[in-house]
Amino acid sequence: MGTVKRIVRKGSLLGEMGFIKGGGNINWFPGHMAAATRAIRDRLKLSDFVIEVRDARIPLSSANNELQPMLVGKRRVIALNKKDLANPNIMHKWIHYFDSCEQDCLSINAHSKSSVKKLLDLVEFKLKEVISREPTLLVMVVGVPNVGKSALINSIHQIASIRFPVQEKRKRATVGPLPGVTQDIAGFKIAHRPSIYVLDTPGVLVPSIPDIETGLKLAVAGSVKDSIVGEERIVQYLLALLSIRGTPLHWKNLTERETGGLNPDSDDKPDYDLKNLMPTRRRKPPSNSDVHYIEDIVVEVQRALCVTLMEFSGDLEDENDLGNLIELQFEALKKALKVPHKTSEARTIVSKKFLTLFRAGKLGTFILDDVPEPNEPISY
């Protein structure tokens, strides 16, 4: 992993960049986030419990470090959302890590009612002592953009309507495909005696991210708009990370097509629309034949990356060699994704399609952050 950090720090492969408010090469901190951050701070002082939603694929990188000092003294649970997209073999290590830090943590899927019920049960258990003393309790949901807060709020509403049917009409949280779509803060009553309100909040990032690799991981997960960083730059980083980890080599024996990813009756809904992988002439929702089409593409993409890495004779520790490998991978991906080579924006199209597959979990489950070593100082 040191190679990726060194390349990102030097900027030779990905180009110079900086995640700084109002300046630098990437201005990514919208004005509404500053106002939202102030509002969140004010409400945090009044809240009795905090659900901090993070992306399970980046358990540390998706933390809003600016809010951490205020959260440390609060009753809190870290909800690692999108667990269906995270590697389960590593997820248990993260749960153990947070447990060793004496921090409550639960991996969830915000689209799964059973998963959200477990989270609510934990919140109610933690509030049990307070419930006996306070008539009204506030539970605040916070997190950076696109970690699934609004989806979680909507699932909580659906569960609450069954548990507590006698209450005023509730408004659903707004859910959108772009990070930062929830720009207001609203309270939703989820229980009586005592009255418990859940406060939904907009996703906010810190004004500056000193660690550029953290910024790139946030971009991979979709917490920063693709157009701000650039899809090609995001994919360059992702390909470098996957290659150095040797991930494509795990696809060597992949020969059978798996078609379990688009079950319309499943609670596990993909966070990213797969329709843009289809030929542009098609406008209808994905059918069973479309599922096979997408799965065929997935196999071709995995095979392309596996073959290029297996045939690579350079040194992955050398940034020039790694850059050459990534160029070869882009060329292989053009064929796998059926993008015409002569298209002027071929690399951008390849990048968008590859990111869609990765974010929807079609290429497998991943956790991009490394579990901290024992006794390693870390802010969470």
Low-confidence stretches: 16-28, 169-184, 255-266
Strand order of the largest sheet: 4-3-2-5-7-6
How much helix is in the residues? 40-55%
Strand content: 5-15%
H/I helix tally = 13
CA-CA gap between termini: 21 Å
DSSP strand count = 8
> What is the radius of gyration?
22 Å
Topology, element by element:
Elements: H1 2-10, E1 19-20, H2 31-44, E2 49-55, H3 68-72, E3 76-81, H4 88-100, E4 105-107, H5 113-126, H6 128-131, E5 136-142, H7 149-163, E6 186-191, E7 195-200, E8 208-209, H8 212-221, H9 226-229, H10 231-245, H11 288-311, H12 319-336, H13 346-359
Parallel strand pairs: 2-3, 2-5, 3-4, 5-7
Antiparallel strand pairs: 1-8, 6-7
Helix pairs in contact: 5-7, 8-10, 10-13, 11-12
Explain what you see.
Helix 11 (288-311) runs antiparallel to helix 12. With 380 residues, the protein is α/β, with parallel strands linked by helices. The longest helix has 24 residues, at 288-311. The chain starts with a helix and ends in a 21-residue tail after the last helix. The strands form 2 sheets. It has a 6-stranded mixed sheet with strand order 4-3-2-5-7-6, with helices on both faces. It has a two-stranded antiparallel sheet with strand order 1-8. The chain is elongated and about 65 Å long. Strand 2, helix 3 (68-72) and strand 3 (76-81) form a beta-alpha-beta unit. It has helices spanning 2-10, 31-44, 68-72, 88-100, 113-126, 128-131, 149-163, 212-221, 226-229, 231-245, 288-311, 319-336, 346-359; strands at residues 19-20, 49-55, 76-81, 105-107, 136-142, 186-191, 195-200, 208-209.
Give the gist of this structure.
The protein is an alpha/beta fold and 380 residues long. The protein contains 13 helices and 8 strands. 42% of the residues lie in helices and 10% in strands.
